[in-house]
Amino acid sequence: MSHSAARARAGRDRTSLYQEITDKIIAELEVGRVPWVQPWGTAAAKAPLDMPKNAATQRRYSGINVLTLWGAVIERGFSGQGWLTFRQALGLGGNVRKGEKGTTAVYADRFTPDEERRRAERDGDEPYVIPFLKRFTVFNTDQCENLPEELTTAPEPVPQGLILPQAEALIAATGADFRIGGDRAFYNVLHDFVQVPRPEAFFEPINFHRTAIHEVAHWAGAAHRLGRDLSGAFGSALYAKEELVAEMSSAFVCASLGIKPTVRHADYIGSWLEVLRGDDRAIVRAASAASKTADYLLAFQSDDSKPAETVEIANEREVA
Ligand SMILES: [Zn+2]
Question: Which of 38, 122, 160, 287 falls 20 to 30 Å from 8 in CA-CA distance?
Fold first, then answer.
């Protein structure tokens, strides 16, 4: 690539990055959130009020990075303000956990165009420099594992009694990689793990169980388990069908565990109706798949020695 092409690209990247940041801040303000006044001390904020810092160097982040990293801590329910690059985590003997998405931070740099350098040499004065932003990716220490203990913020243990023992025992018996934390519940197809927010994050902690079993039902549907098609894009009929199976599976398993099932995904009802109206066999098929899933999961109760085999699935996807 020629120098001018490289410069043109750097120029575009500069503009878009400033614009991207500005657009994000505008979007926040438009919905009444002020990015530099985060709701510390509320249920959404798990981390203590502090400036974000690099956990390896202890340097504090500054400028726009403070807003970005604070925003990520609140939005994603991280428990601390320490951040690391992928390499820094490795350098500390740890690693970023599989499937974790990083947060984009920026640093200010400057460059002098070649032409300007030549002009300055010719005229014998100082070349002007163009300040610009470059992006890099950091991960909260919550997203890392095997870090030295002093760098990790140990998550608060889930208070006794919030997770019903029969549900906890079943989930453990499945051998599923089941993670508690964050602000969203999902099954990550590629890395084959389930994540569910802490029970306290639910308006009624009992809903933790329904959500947890729903996600474990997606886990059970993976290609190398019950082999359902989990490739439906959000909003597609395939997605709605899989949600229907997961919701019914959760209802069947919860009922078996003595947990009263409820409709959690009221917002999905419209898409389910569409599926049912378009295919008169859909509900029978979904209920059958849900029964198989419930049987598959409940079978772990009596036999916890079955190892869960893992295979890599080629597409990066999450099923919520
Ligand atoms: Zn789901």
Answer: 122
Q: How far is the CA of 186 from the centre of ligand 1 (A)?
A: 7
- Ligand 1 centre distance from Cα of residue 230 (Å): 10
Tokens of 1: 């690539």
Q: How far apart are the first and last CA of the chain?
A: 42
Question: Where are the chain's structural domains?
Answer: 3-151, 165-319
Q: How far is the CA of 29 from the centre of ligand 1 (A)?
A: 31
CA angle 143, 146, 149 (to 5 degrees): 95
C-alpha 251 – ligand 1 centre gap (Å): 13
Q: How far is the CA of 135 from the centre of ligand 1 (A)?
A: 33
Q: Which residues pair with 195 in a beta bridge?
A: 179, 186
The residue type found at 175 is G
pTM for this structure? 0.63
- Residue 270: how many other CB atoms lie within 10 Å: 9
Contacts (Cβ under 8 Å, ≥6 apart) of 313: 189, 190, 192, 222, 223
- Indicate whether 54 pLDDT > 70: yes
Please say if the pLDDT value at position 152 is more than 70.
yes
Torsion of CA 117, 118, 121, 127, to 10 degrees: -20
Compute the distance from residue 281 Cα to the ligand 1 centre, in Å.
21
CA dihedral 29, 33, 38, 44 (to 10 degrees): -150
62 strand-pairing partners: none
Kindly give the distance from the C-alpha atom of residue 76 to the centroid of ligand 1, in angstroms, as a whole number: 19
Gap from CA of 142 to ligand 1 centroid (Å): 24
pLDDT digits (tens, 9 = 90+) for 270-301: 778 888 888 888 888 888 999 999 999 999 98
